[in-house]
TrEMBL record:
PANTHER family, alphabetized: FATTY ACID SYNTHASE, NONRIBOSOMAL PEPTIDE SYNTHETASE
Record region (Disordered): 1-43
GO MF annotation list: 2,3-dihydroxybenzoate-serine ligase activity; phosphopantetheine binding
Essential cofactor(s): pantetheine 4'-phosphate
GO CC, alphabetical: cytosol; enterobactin synthetase complex
Family annotation (SMART domains): PKS_PP, PKS_TE
Identification of the protein by name: Amino acid adenylation domain-containing protein
Biased composition (Basic and acidic residues): 1-10
PROSITE patterns the UniProt entry points to: AMP_BINDING (PS00455), CARRIER (PS50075), PHOSPHOPANTETHEINE (PS00012)
Length: 1364
């Protein structure tokens, strides 16, 4: 190249800061050297003008990088960049000429990646298409800063793989004897090892040119050789051995952990740097020699120690980049060949740093022997490709390359600028082999780590290194490395929560509020409500009644009641006596309730009349709230005086005992003191600032401790409570409607509950203050809620053992991405401790221990378990509760929740011990072993999955999911019943012989039956809905909702959408009665077609056998008979006969014989001829008997007549001679209901019976009211008429066999001939069966388990007699 050519191609860019020029502007006279022919120079004299472009497939390492760029963040950096700082004279022209020769020798410098019909290809140009600029900053005031800005801008620029230069260098001049050689390459064409090859070759060429000696030949091999070696490897047995090694080595690895605050990963790069001086390096080398490890292995052990202490992972896995060059040929190819191997280390409380060095040395040596097996293939083998899962998010990169380089006799120092975007956190250590200091870079994803957080990690790492060098023989787990300043921050600054509490307790605060605002509404439930004065006076009366029954502060009173205003009255009354209440969920299985009552050793059980008979038998006395109401007499309504209390009440008296799931299979009772409760309510009052104008929704069962906030906090500030029943709480549509109609302003719910509202009823959130707790709050849900609500979302955290909530966080900004659990409440201390109960630094993962005024008294009658979980507080007096929750501090004193350290699970806010479910499973027939895990379904929702090993004698039916689910529903609450059941030959075990839960396979979230396509529009609608709910491609009409992973919340969500689409009320129970699309579609169609007020109501019209007709009770409705259907043979249709007049017809029947004749006429439109089957409950039994007599007179056969607990009136006591008030009493007695506090009119009687039959809360009634607002008036009119019909009726003999079912727990009235034997004179024969329940409970689900099979068996027997 001559100067005229250099002048022609010169490009000079000038600015006030620097000038940039090509080789030509710096070229002296004469040639630039033999390496100067690397540029294309016009049409003449171009040595490469006729050379062809070469195309090669991508190597395996390049494919992974190429795919990563295609699908990764747009701002991701894939460029590697560094610079060599040279102090001394540099011949600029020769240096750039040397770069040109490197480009001519190494094909990777001339590669671009192009996309062809055959996929991506390496396009190798015969010449380097760019130039090598000389960038001169020597005139700048701060040349180093200017150079850094220039380099950063250059390597941060995204590259077009097909058009841009993927390898680029520049010579940067800072002064007469001060240069930077800048070296940047896209990672897809070159790795760090390859970059080192080029760097050393550059030095060789330049030094030869400067010395004027021949340049030594290069030893680079072409890129095609890399592909050839790769192919040989894949076809070799070594490939198979490597694959097998890694699959075994990484079997059962833990889920990849991160030290970040969470969030969506981005591109870019964040770095924090530190140094280890030469003295420290020397100490580390000596340690390595003693422990049998090299310096790089010692450095790896240091970084592993840090990851271990910060993450708490004793099964530690991290990635380590390797060159993947195991042969001499591979080491001669500058290319992208790098791989990552996974270093897996086993640590425990005894592991020392010296031990770890030895383990690292051994593990690294083994890993390097198998380093060719690609990381991408290993992720595929381990099933981690889906969802971007990784083997580990931690990375360690020790760069021991020999960078002791000289350019023209001048030493240079290498400086790394970029290793590209990292997905999480990788720590680099650069060992230049010069015996001087080591540089440490912490490279992090900027979306996951702030600069302050990253600098904190750097400082803690350097502190840990100093500690380890001093005490290498000490246990890593017991190493104390928290500085005094950080210790002060944690113990004092972040836990400075001391606040004075009132001298009086919650009950007295409520009583004062009742005096201040006596007429303000305190609580409403449906149409009922109480003012503060009414609530307080009724609680006072109930408290005195309880005292009269011997209840005092030493007692425990169980409460199992309907969700009405009386529930709160009773809870307050118990606390006024000083006793502890033990709340029960009446819907829980009887077996579980019995277990809790036995464990709790209760002195009294308070229940509702409609529930008392369905509860399990208990040894203690039982009283209903109705009985308390009837016996209140002239009891004082004033507040209780101390003199009335048999024993004093103090702050340490137990307020309530909440039973939670127990790992042994038995629930455990948490004892909360009155001071615990007072502190909690005082803290939440200060935190939430609820005002008297607020209306707080109470939707949580009292058996879940968070109900305390909903029921008690409003009473301290004069706010009102809107109490909803279980049906409304479970139904998002009804719940949304209640929130809007009642003007609710504050709602506390679990994320699962909120998700259902956000998805389908977002409008109800617009004016709410949203409180979320009970389980981890997902970021997307938090963001959506924030968009919908007018005030910030409040995230709450706390175990039952520390009184409801212990920390709080009002969410905004970046906290919405991964919501933290916040800071401690009043008088609460939060500590993040390691396994030795030592404080951990910011960012380190440890177990959360909670101290302070919220810590419970312990577990009732479980001293060993109490001692295990409630431990001495080493930082202050009292106890700490060890939560088992994994957390870490943020730099700002906020806690982040990370999961559990045991097998406890949170489901819909309820704390669940896997052991309790496993114990219940192992009691199921055919199950030998069981394990339960919480797994994420395709939509990201947590579902319980049961893994089962069958008994050798088990049959297939016993392990069917439907059979197991049905059995567990009798033993466990619905939220503890697994959604999926996976059969295994054996449960996987770890090296200690315990169940390896990490190795349990993910369930197949897919349809299990052979696919059958929808046949109708409704089936298509349901199939599309289910496919969306379960994130499946398709769902067949015979797939089970529950086998797909559905639960009650998912069912409620689906039914809500179905109601919206169809515009009709669909009962939630339909999903549980018909679990497949085909079955559900049939039920829905029947429901849509059926008139719920028709005289003949089809309850199950399928089947071709003789139907069973069920006659209504006195209320006139026959809906309750639907529960009998599941017990009947498939061929038996089921119909209900309902009263005429429910639609408002003017003419009503005037006699019982007229009723019977009308019903027979309707019945014969369904079944023209006998044999007929009749069943009647209560008044319906008397009507059914009269119908049977009528049919027999017409010559028809009646093969079955069942009378359910119905009795004729006593002779000489006809009702027609009595007054209306007396008739009301007689009606109650006829129904077996308490009549000691009777209604004063027939209208009042109608209201009472509507409540008794729960008419007002039936979803179908609410639906009917929308089109027929007078339905309740019509029901009242029918009821009044039915009472009149019973006044004068006396049964006559019918030629039929009678099956009589007696409810033995019903009180007897002299008005009735209260004996089944009375029916002997009115039939051909009489068979009596007894069921131990109240008259009104006969059709309850708990009694149907006995009544249903009895009816089915009797029908079959009747049919058998007829056929014989």
């Amino acid at each position: 190249m001559d100067c005229s050519e250099a002048e022609r191609t010169r490009t000079i860019t000038k600015s006030s800061r620097h000038k940039e020029m090509s080789l030509d502007s710096a070229c002296p006279t004469g040639d630039a050297g033999e390496g100067g022919n690397y540029l294309e120079r016009g049409e003449n004299g171009d040595a490469f003008h006729h050379a062809e472009v070469t195309y090669l497939p991508l190597a395996a390492a390049q494919r992974g990088m190429w795919v990563g760029e295609k699908i990764g963040p747009a701002d991701a950096i894939y460029n590697l960049a560094e610079y060599a700082e040279i102090r001394g004279d540099i011949n600029e022209a020769l240096f750039i000429s040397a770069l040109g020769q490197v480009a001519a020798e190494a094909e990777s410098t001339r590669v671009q990646i192009v996309e062809t019909q055959d996929g991506p290809r390496q396009q190798i140009s015969p010449y380097y298409r760019g130039d090598f600029p000389l960038v001169d900053f020597s005139d700048d005031p701060e040349p180093h800063v200017s150079a850094q800005v220039w380099m950063h801008k250059e390597f941060s620029r995204p590259l077009d793989l097909a058009a841009d230069l993927l390898w680029r260098c520049a010579l940067i001049k800072l002064g007469p004897q001060h240069y930077y050689w800048y070296h940047r390459v896209h990672h897809v064409v070159l790795d760090g090892y390859g970059g080192g090859l080029l760097t050393r070759r550059l030095a060789d060429i330049y030094n030869a040119l400067v010395a004027g000696v021949p340049v030594p030949p290069h030893s680079f091999l072409p890129l095609a050789k890399q592909l050839e070696i790769e192919q040989r490897y894949h076809e070799s047995s070594r490939y198979q051995r490597d694959q097998q090694y890694w699959k075994q080595h990484l079997q059962g690895i833990p889920e990849a952990k991160s030290l970040s605050r969470g969030g969506e990963r981005s591109g870019g790069l964040r770095r924090s740097s530190g140094y280890l001086d030469a003295q420290r390096v020397s100490v580390l080398k000596d340690l390595g020699q003693q422990a049998g490890g090299s310096l790089p292995q010692v450095l790896i052990a240091l970084l592993a120690s840090y990851y271990y202490r910060m993450s708490g992972e004793d099964d530690l896995v991290f990635g380590m980049p390797v060159s993947a060059r195991v042969s001499r040929e591979q080491r001669a190819i500058p290319a992208m060949m790098a791989n990552a191997v996974s270093i897996r280390l086993a640590l425990n409380e005894q592991t020392t740093f010296v031990d770890l060095i030895g383990q690292v040395a051994s593990t690294v040596r083994s890993s390097l022997r198998h380093q060719q097996y690609r990381y991408e293939e290993l992720r595929r083998d381990l099933g981690l490709l889906e969802g971007g899962r990784q083997i580990s998010w931690f990375g360690v990169n020790i760069e021991p390359f020999d960078y002791d380089l000289h350019f023209g006799g001048h030493r240079c120092e290498m400086h790394n600028l970029s290793n590209g975007t990292v997905e999480d956190l990788t720590i680099f250590v650069y060992d230049r082999g010069n015996g001087e200091k080591l540089r440490i870079d912490l490279d992090a994803n900027p979306a996951l780590y702030s600069q302050a957080e990253l600098d904190g990690h750097r400082d803690r790492l350097l502190t840990l290194i100093d500690k380890l060098m001093v005490t290498p023989e000490a246990s890593l787990a017991t190493l104390v490395w928290l500085g005094d300043e950080e210790r002060r921050r944690q113990l004092r600054d972040w836990n400075d929560t001391d606040q004075a509490l009132p001298e009086i307790d919650f009950i007295q605060l409520f009583e004062r509020q009742a005096m201040r605002t006596p007429n303000a509404p305190a609580i409403s439930c449906g149409e009922q409500g109480l003012t503060y004065s009414q609530l307080n006076t009724r609680a006072n009366v109930k408290a005195r009644q309880l005292l009269a029954q011997g209840i005092d502060s030493s007692c425990r009173v169980a409460v199992a009641m309907d969700r009405t205003c009386s529930l709160l009255v009773v809870l307050l009354a118990i606390q006024k006596t000083g006793a502890a209440y033990l709340p029960l969920d009446p819907s829980a299985p009887a077996e579980r309730l019995a277990m809790i009552l036995e464990e709790g050793q209760v002195d009294l059980l308070v229940s509702s009349g409609s529930l008392a008979q369905s509860l399990p038998g208990v040894a203690c006395p039982v009283v209903t709230v109705e009985e308390l109401l009837e016996s209140q007499g002239m009891i004082s309504v004033s507040n209780l005086r101390d003199a009335e209390l048999p024993s004093p009440i103090g702050p340490s008296s137990t307020a309530y005992i909440i039973y939670t799931s127990g790992s042994t299979g038995r629930p455990k009772g948490v004892m909360i003191s009155r001071r615990n409760l007072l502190n909690f309510l005082s803290a939440m009052r200060a935190e939430l600032n609820i005002s008297p104008s607020d209306k707080v929704l109470a939707l949580t069962t009292v058996a879940f401790d968070i109900a305390a906030l909903e029921l008690y906090l409003p009473l301290l500030v004069g706010a009102s409570i809107e109490l909803v029943d279980r049906d409304v709480a479970r139904d998002p549509a009804a719940l949304s409607e209640r929130i809007l109609q009642r003007g609710v302003s504050v709602v506390q719910a679990t994320p699962s509950h909120w998700q259902a509202l956000v998805d389908d009823y977002p409008q109800c959130l617009s004016n709410l203050r949203a409180l979320v707790g009970g389980e981890a709050l997902p970021g997307p849900l938090a963001k959506k809620m924030t968009e919908l609500t007018s005030t910030p979302v409040v995230n709450l955290y706390g175990p039952t053992e520390t009184t409801v909530w212990s920390s709080v966080m009002t969410l905004s900004g970046a906290d919405l991405d991964s919501p933290p659990i916040g800071r401690p409440l009043w008088n609460t201390q939060l500590h993040v401790l390691d396994g030795n109960r030592q404080l951990l630094p910011v960012g380190a993962v440890g177990e959360l221990y909670i101290g302070g005024a919220g810590v419970a008294q312990g577990y009732f009658n479980r001293p060993e378990l109490t001692a295990e979980r409630f431990v001495p507080n080493p930082f202050a007096g009292g106890k700490l509760y060890r939560t088992g929750d994994l957390v870490r501090w943020r730099e700002d004193g906020v806690l982040e929740y990370l999961g559990r350290n045991d097998f406890q699970i949170k489901v819909r806010g309820f704390r669940v011990e896997a052991g309790e479910i496993e114990a219940a499973l192992q009691r199921c027939e055919g199950v030998r072993q069981a394990a339960v895990m919480l797994k994420q379904d395709p939509r990201g929702d947590g579902r319980l999955v049961a893994y089962l090993v069958a008994d050798t004698n088990a049959d297939g039916k016993q392990l069917e999911s439907g059979t197991l689910r049905e059995t567990l529903q009798q033993r466990l609450p619905d939220y503890m019943v697994p959604a999926m059941y996976v059969a295994l030959d054996e449960l996987p075990l770890n090296v200690n012989g315990k169940v390896d839960r990490k190795a349990l396979p993910d369930p197949q979230w897919q349809a299990r039956q052979q696919y059958v396509a929808p046949r109708t529009e409704l089936e298509s609608t349901l199939a599309a809905m289910w496919a969306e709910i379960f994130a499946l491609d398709r769902v067949g009409i015979h797939d089970s909702f529950f086998d797909l992973g559905g639960d009650s919340l998912a069912a409620a969500k689906m039914v809500a959408r179905l109601r919206e689409q169809l515009g009709r009320q669909i009962p939630l129970a339909a999903v549980f009665q018909a679990s497949t699309i085909a079955e559900l579609a049939q039920q829905v169609e029947q429901h849509l077609e059926a008139d719920p007020l028709a005289t003949v109501l089809p309850l199950n019209s399928g089947g071709s056998g003789a139907p069973l007709f069920c006659v209504h009770p006195i209320i006139g409705l026959a809906w309750g008979f639907a529960g009998i259907g599941p017990y009947l043979d498939d061929g038996v249709p089921l119909y209900g006969l309902q009263a005429i007049g429910l639609r408002g017809e003017e003419t009503l029947p005037q006699s019982m014989s007229e009723v019977a004749s009308l019903y027979v006429e309707q019945l014969r439109q369904v079944q023209a001829a006998g044999p007929y089957r009749l069943l009647g409950w209560s008044m319906g039994g008397i009507i059914a008997h009269e119908m049977a007599r009528c049919l027999r007179e017409k010559g028809e056969e009646v093969e079955f007549l069942a009378i359910l607990d119905a009795y004729p009136f006593a002779e000489g006591k006809p009702m027609e001679r009595r007054s209306d008030s007396q008739l009301a009493i007689n009606t109650l007695e006829f129904l077996g209901l308490d009549s000691s506090n009777p209604p004063d009119s027939m209208v009042s009687l109608t209201d009472r019976l509507c409540r008794e039959y729960d008419i007002l809360n039936m979803p179908m009634v609410r639906d009917i009211q929308q089109v027929n607002p007078a339905i309740l008036e019509h029901v009242g009119r029918v009821l009044n008429n039915n009472v009149k019909l019973l006044r004068s009726y006396e049964p006559k003999h019918a030629d039929v066999d009678i099956l009589f079912v007696e409810a033995t727990a019903t009180s007897r009235a002299d008005l009735l001939q209260h004996s089944p034997a009375v029916w002997q004179q009115f039939g051909r024969s009489l068979e009596v069966h007894q069921i131990d329940c109240h008259h009104q409970a006969l059709l309850d689900p708990s009694q149907l388990t006995e009544l249903g099979p009895l009816v089915a068996t009797s029908l079959a027997a009747a049919e058998g007699r007829r056929q014989s």
